[in-house]
Predict the structure.
Amino acid sequence: MENIFGDRVMTFYNNLHPPQNLPSEIEWIMNIRQPETQRVMKLFYDKYYGDTERRYFWFGINPGRWGSGMTGIGFTDPLNLEIACGISNSFPKKHELSSQFIYTVLEEYGSVENFYKQHYFTAVCPLGLLKNNKNFNYYDDSEVFKEITQFVMTTLDSQIKGAAYSSAAVCIGQGKNNKILKEWNKTHQWFDQIITLPHPRWIMQYKRKNLGMYIDMYLTCIDDLCR
């Protein structure tokens, strides 16, 4: 049986069973169980990942409720899913900041098709979290992090093996996400190198005046990986 990349991704997400004993105000974003999310994920991964090639992995933090937490596709909000990727959907059509930046980069790169042939957006923690209905990072609370560490590390290992290039990966986010991923990489030796880029949300919120500089930074990273 062929090891189709897109099929691996769907199997991975459909077999996620996150820890449930979290504080009452914290919950997982589980849109991946919804029929519309399942439908668009299958269309997307068949369209862009219907082959057996490995990819360079780009790791975000965890899905957000208006972006990949809704669509099931890394850094892809409903508008970019429809307009840039050509997959119509019934989700509320609103932009998410990180997705706006990422798809601006992909447009400058040339096309989403060319990017996805060699690269794959995912997250260190594969599912999003909410605290009182607001986005919550997997590392924001020490007790929550302790509770879900084994799940996050095990699923991270599962994502990578047999699908990622081992020469290098990209960590999106220069703070705790970067520190955690690099610490775990020392133990598991998934990648020879982890390249760190500033997070799109941080760029869009605080550095928008220098947007061109950060787009060039991302484009240079893509070029360096693919040399």
Remarks:
- Strands lie at 26-29, 56-60, 119-123, 128-131, 134-136, 169-172, 194-197.
- Residues 104 and 110 are 10 Å apart (CA to CA).
- The chain has one domain: 5-225.
